[in-house]
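Quick illustration for those who missed Monday's session on complexes.
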Amino acid sequence: KSVTQWLQDHGQPREWQERFWNIIALAILNDSPEHTSAEIFKRALKAMFHGKRENSSLAFPLTSLSQLLRMPAENYVRQHGGTILTHSAVERIDSIYDVQKGDSHPERFIITTADGRRITARAIICALPHRQALQVLRSSNLSENISLLLQQMETLRDSSIINVHLWFNKVFTQLPFAAIIGRNFQWIFNTRMIRTKDSHTPTHLTLVMSGANSFIHLPKEHLLHVALQDLHAVLPESRTASLLHYLVIKERTATIALRPGVDALRPGPETPVHGLFLAGDWTATGLPATIEGAVRSGKQAAALAIRLLSGEHS
Ligand SMILES: Cc1cc2nc3c(=O)[nH]c(=O)nc-3n(C[C@H](O)[C@H](O)[C@H](O)COP(=O)(O)OP(=O)(O)OC[C@H]3O[C@@H](n4cnc5c(N)ncnc54)[C@H](O)[C@@H]3O)c2cc1C
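Prediction with flavin-adenine dinucleotide bound:
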């Protein structure tokens, strides 16, 4: 069932859908409520409103996501004896079997990277985005049993996000952020004010469009025009400001499309290849394709890999 069908079943008038539900559903599920899963939406609402109060709070990063999330994670891995290779994309993973033992499980894996490295591992967590994971697994020599998983992954579709950053020569709003109803972009964030608590010039606004598949192919100049039209419609004072600079960021494959029934297509952490695990926001987390889902799946995959390796040692 789609989010729209579910809302209709519960007697939510069209106006409430347009002015309240749709804006929340689009932000959470990154696609139109007519095409997204009511089940996943319900789970997200439950997680937000049936738990602790802070579960439903809005959080704005005050620094870049790299500083907030990536760097502490990298430090943690290094401090615990791990190694991180960057600019070293995985091209393929080959499973090696001990023919003499006649084992049906791979004894080890060899990972080949684009810069020519060959890394040996007993267990692997493939935490690549959905498209890249599919490409790497297709190029790999693993096991025939993996073909069903690949077919399942091929059926997953993408949903886009477009961000348009605008810098103006004057201040014309004191709103930290606002939802836009009935236009093309759905949110305006007063990025400079949120990050620096400073509402002086230049004003830096970010307009966000989730579920942007029908706009993603448009030229950047056209998207700028659409963003300015939406901004002028909701904040007419913006017409009096001069645009100093702009940046359009298109994320074509921002998340998987969470269509009704998609739960059955998202693979879990275990694969048909013993020792190869999957993680990522697109896997069967039960949640929308979010950071929280990615973390949850990473923890599950790590627990399974640790169990496998500690079983081998004992
Ligand atoms: C514009 C935008 C806004 C978003 N806003 C939010 C939000 O407000 N809240 C929220 O919770 N989520 C948000 N998301 C979604 C969030 O970014 C993802 O859910 C999250 O990053 C998924 O984490 P992940 O670890 O599964 O994948 P990723 O973060 O995509 O990490 C996968 C990693 O694999 C690497 N990689 C790719 N190919 C290879 C290869 N061949 N070899 C080695 N490494 C490779 C990539 O470089 C990347 O570092 C947003 C996404 C976008 C695009």
